[in-house]
Amino acid sequence: MVALSNERPAGLIVGTKVHVSGVSNSTVLAAGRDIKLHARQPLVTVRVTDQEIAAVRRAWVKIDRHRRPLVTASEVLTLLREGEPVVVIAGARGVGKTAAAVRALTDYSKFRAAAGQQGTAAPALELEHILPDWESPDAEILPDGTDRGYILDVSEEIDQWEDRLGAAKKILGHGDALKEADSCLIVIASETGWPTSQTPTLGRVVVRATARPPGDLVTLTHLANLYPKMAQRRWLVAGNDELESEALSDLLSRDMYPCDAAVLAHELSEIDDSPDALETARSTVLQWRDVVKDVFARTSQDADDRALLLAAIMLDGATPADVLAAARLLLQEEASKSMREILTGPDLATRLENVHARVTGQNVTFSHKPGYSGAILRYVWRQLSDAQDPLLEWVKELTKANGLGAGHLSEIANLLVRLAVDEHDLTVLDVARAWAVSDHEHGRDAAAAMLAQAAEDDTLGTATRTKLRTWAGQESVNTAKVAAVVCQGTFATTYPRQALTCLRWVLNRSKHDDAVNAAEDALCAMANNVNLLPQVWKAVTSWKEGKWTLARRRGFLALIDPTTARATVYRLLDNALTDAQTADELVDGWCEALGDPLLADRCEQLLERWAQAVSDRIIEDEPVVRILDRVVDDHLMTGPMAAFLIGKAGAAYNSPAVISMRERLMVRRRGGGAGPRHGGVGAV
């Protein structure tokens, strides 16, 4: 059972202690008064993984492709040891800037520990990536935890900053707070994005990354030091006379990006030592280039089999008949061959196997060749570029509600996101837009998942998040709805500020439609996360400009609805017991909503739901009475409040909960208990 006992704290609010015993099939909500709703909310950080640290400590490559020493990490370390709290690594994509940052921070952490042995306490640094969850750079929300080594990668967005000089100065100025916390920050910038010519101070902390390690050596070093079992793979090392073809190590490219080389090492580590392991490994290293070229060379005069290949890729796991039908849809032909040609030509299974598909019973799959499907799509995208638009139109047709690909949406979305990332081409995401504006619920969900995955990608993330904000502000109900649905998932926890920006646009739509409903659901889902509640509440209460008035009021009403946001209402009211600002914001929000004729019906419903929630002991009665009592001061004769207190023609507010709440309010007002419109601590 849950027993409630009242205890009056300082101020005018009656607080509540909760004693819990014998609870079963019940939910006990965490107290809200300990939540700091108005504290500064820094950017989200993600810990640097043990795998990242192991890669730079145990598999570090010290030379570049010309066998010269790599000095980026050591130069960063020098600046950190000299007391610079903020250091910038500037360089082109693919030179290993992030790895150099992790290496430098781990070296600096060891240096601090060594200094600690000499009498200066210096705990090991906790390394964290900062996610740039902002529309424009804001140094005020950069984190400044104690004994942290932060990495902030802005290389994909810094060139688009409107005021790069001002932003750079503020980021550098954040160093004072970092110094006080015995922490530091490494900023990853593009080759020319960080402004250095305007002021020497900004240039002093820049390390130029101009060389990268050879890709083949990165792969081999990772295999040797991170995957020790690979030493037993006989197909890895050159010079083995038992092999009929050149060994794998001779096929590795020196020009691979370090990150790609590391991924390749991981993929190779998962290959066993079976008889066909060498062929699989070779194809993996070469990204199936030889196999793909061979397939397209053999089908150069056969559009039917090329269409069959693309259909089998998109419908991996489908029946041969469905794959054939999808191929004909791509070619826009009812039947690609005459009966004579069909009877005298190869059977369907043989045609599929000729393009390396595996036909097992009634399933066509490429699961035995991981990476092959992506390689085929990349080849078509690059070498047959005229086919891009028709290919995307075909996918849209294929994935309609009753289309052959309707049951493969998730797999197709993953393929297309991978293609978009590999080609750094947002055009591919046009399919998600088509899914979003369809009447197909699964299509909208797939579009949301596809966009969320792209939005969180290191390469495409910045551009995708911009596109997502654009969609949120468009007139199409379904397009706006998918932007809201994206904000119900992982995107909202990793990029909460940008999710809230999207939701603000959707909530501000002139008509309360399905998109607005989805946005309210997303907002409540975010607020239900106790770690996100302060950020959500701060955002909603800060949408004060006239342009965002409707978004603010809708967001407020969604968050105080005990039927859909029970935990949030409880925490907000509990927080208001000790925080006068929260109490004032609740009163102000009610007053604004009650003054909007468009929200009158909803306000009436919410007043009744608050009364019912008090009756059901879901929320506390005293803060509710005191908040509504202050609201009555301004809105006694306003339609919804008057109807709640007095009743209106045709509406029966006769439930015991409403009657009880009326009595509480009337007793309080007769007793002269109405407080000031705004007050001090406990102003509720």
Apparent shape = flat
From the N-terminal CA to the C-terminal CA, the straight-line distance is 28 Å
Q: What is the percent of helical residues?
A: 40-55%
Work out the radius of gyration. Answer: 31 Å
Which structural class should the secondary elements be placed in? alpha/beta
Total helices: the number is: 32
| Main sheet: strands, sense, barrel | 6 strands, mixed
Total number of beta strands: 10
**Average of the residue pLDDT scores:** 85
Model description:
- The chain is an alpha/beta fold.
- 52% of the residues lie in helices and 7% in strands.
- The strands form three sheets. It has a six-stranded mixed sheet with strand order 3-5-6-7-4-8.
- 43% of the residues are buried.
- Residues 1-29, 238-245 and 674-684 have low confidence and may be disordered.
- This is ATP-binding protein.
- It comes from Streptomyces luteireticuli.
Summarize the structure in short.
It comes from Streptomyces luteireticuli. The protein is an alpha/beta fold and 684 residues long. The chain is flat and about 90 Å long.
Furnish the topology, listing elements before pairings.
Elements: E1 2-7, E2 15-20, E3 45-47, H1 50-58, H2 72-81, E4 86-91, H3 97-117, E5 126-130, E6 148-153, H4 164-173, H5 175-180, E7 184-189, H6 200-204, E8 206-209, H7 215-226, H8 258-269, H9 277-285, H10 289-298, H11 303-314, H12 320-331, H13 339-344, H14 348-354, E9 358-360, E10 363-365, H15 372-383, H16 388-398, H17 409-423, H18 430-436, H19 441-455, H20 461-472, H21 477-486, H22 490-494, H23 496-507, H24 514-528, H25 533-542, H26 549-559, H27 566-576, H28 580-594, H29 600-615, H30 621-635, H31 639-645, H32 656-670
Parallel strand pairs: 4-7, 4-8, 5-6, 6-7
Antiparallel strand pairs: 1-2, 3-5, 9-10
Helix pairs in contact: 1-3, 2-3, 7-8, 11-12, 15-17, 16-18, 17-19, 18-19, 19-21, 20-21, 20-23, 21-23, 21-24, 23-24, 23-25, 23-26, 24-25, 24-26, 25-26, 26-28, 27-28, 28-30, 29-31, 29-32, 30-32
